[in-house]
Design goal:
single chain, alpha/beta, 8-stranded mixed sheet, 14 strands, about 35% helix, binds ligand PAZ
């Protein structure tokens, strides 16, 4: 497997079609919050795709549903941050994540009276819906939440770099929470066929290349003053902490949140230069709806405040 440089990646992959629109939104959002001295968290969320055809019928994808990023976004907002929620299209989103499937419809009552038909929230659902709606409306009224979306791994990198370019002006008030599950492999653009691969041509042989490690230019060049938190996902416990710490030592950012695929909603290890701190929810907490993103975000916010405090 071969890997090119990040410069080569940008030189050989065009930005997504909605790139300029998103760049304007990011610029306006960052300038507005920078003017008021606010803190901004960039939360990346969900998986990236690797298309096997330009007119994409088939693609390589991954498991990520975007729960981590969508949930953490709500906690950053609660902690007074403005949030850029950079997410995979159609993955979980803050606030609406509470109403997946038929949950919202089950909360409603319909009174059919022809032109005077009304829909009301069932009395026992009001206490569920009202606080979420209030937080959603407050975030939007304050202009504190910006959504931008990506699909492919290339779209993701273009958007990430553009967001960093805008965030750089905030210096240490920018916080990056890089929870997206970004593909480690891709097919260079010039090797991707234009049209749907035909089975009559026989089984395809797909040669994947390694995606360049964007954390290096991100930490050193794009947002050198920001508080950067990356994530490390493993499936083998014996690799979890050593790989997380190796990433921290290599990129020299502020924290790696290490988690296992199987237990990611119950246990994480926050790896910082000083320590490994485990956050573990009990079975009871998990079943009663406690979200691990609450304590994760609290600890990150505390360390970010220390990072911002005058020495
Ligand atoms: O998106 P989700 O809630 O299903 O899962 C979250 C997660 C496991 C993708 C995230 O916690 C994470 O570890 N992201 C980084 C993955 C990696 O590239 O190592």
């Amino acid at each position: 497997m071969t890997s090119g440089s990040w410069e080569e990646f940008f030189a050989t992959h065009l930005p997504p079609t909605d790139f300029e629109d998103n760049r304007s939104l990011l610029k306006e959002f960052c300038e507005r919050h920078n003017k008021y001295g606010n803190k901004i968290a960039l939360v990346t969320s969900g998986g990236t795709t690797v298309p096997l055809e330009h007119n994409t019928v088939r693609l390589i994808d991954n498991f990520s549903a975007g729960n981590r990023g969508a949930t953490a976004t709500e906690y950053f907002l609660e902690n007074g941050y403005a949030v850029i929620f950079m997410h995979r299209q159609k993955s979980q989103e803050p606030f609406t994540r509470h109403f997946n499937g038929s949950k919202l419809l089950d909360m409603l009552d319909l009174q059919e009276q022809g032109p005077n038909t009304t829909i009301t929230v069932k009395q026992d659902s009001v206490y569920v819906l009202a606080p979420i709606l209030a937080r959603y409306q407050a975030a939007h009224a304050a202009g504190a939440l910006l959504h931008v979306s990506f699909t492919t791994v290339s779209d993701y990198f273009w958007l990430l770099r553009a967001a960093c370019e805008c965030l750089a002006n905030l210096g240490p008030r920018a916080l990056l929470f890089l929870a997206a599950a970004v593909s480690d492999f891709y097919i260079p653009k010039d090797r991707v066929p234009t049209h749907k691969m035909q089975s009559a041509s026989g089984p395809p042989v797909i040669h994947l290349h390694l995606v360049p490690k964007m954390l290096a230019p991100l930490v050193n060049l794009w947002v050198p003053e920001a508080f950067v938190v990356s994530f490390k996902l493993e499936t083998d416990e014996s690799l979890l902490v050593s790989k997380g710490r190796a990433a921290l030592e290599k990129y020299k950012h502020k924290m790696v949140v290490a988690n296992l695929l199987q237990t990611r909603n119950q246990r994480v290890i926050l790896i910082t230069p000083e320590a490994n701190q485990e956050i573990l929810l009990t079975k009871e907490e998990l079943h009663s709806g406690v979200e691990i993103e609450g304590p994760i975000v609290s600890e990150i916010v505390r360390l970010h405040a220390e990072h911002l405090a005058p020495r």
